[in-house]
Amino acid sequence: MHLVYPAVLAALLFCTGLYGVLARRNAILVLMSVELMLNAVNLNLVAFDVWLRDELHAGQALTLFTIAIAAAEIGIGLAIVLLVHRNRGTADLDRLRDLREDDADGATSENSATDREQKAEAAS
Q: Which residue of 3, 44, 67, 106 lies most exposed, with the fewest beta carbons within 10 A?
């Protein structure tokens, strides 16, 4: 087997995943792009394991480890995305830049804290 074919396919998969991470705004699509990148790494690990004819099959063992890590990452990532969507109503990453919560009147907690400080100074 030629090593070029799986290496080129893995490079294309990795570049597609990298583009998805950098260009997408939806958190679910970013997680899917990270999975594409991990699958490209898995393809390279197995291809080099076969090409080098490793007796211990270290590439395949690392691939199984990477698959387990990817499954845990997706489980935790989807749980976080679902909680954020439930609380904020969107999974758009541009709207989730800051982790501040809004007050009842719509002002952010940082602004209301400075307002309280200014009122305390004016009262004294």
A: 106
CA separation for the pair 10, 23 (Å, rounded): 20
Going through 10-81 in order, the beta strands assigned E by DSSP cover none
93: closest CA among 16, 14, 13, 34?
Answer: 34
pLDDT at res. 88 = 82
Predicted local confidence at residue 93, as pLDDT: 81
Asked if 32 and 62 count as a contact pair (C-beta separation under 8 A), the reply is no
Per the listing, tokens 């490793």 go with: 54
Alpha carbon distance 118, 107 (integer Å): 15
Q: Which residues of 7-45 are buried (b: 16+ CB within 10 A; e: fewer)?
A: beebeebbeebeebbeeeeebeebbebbbbbbbbbbbbb
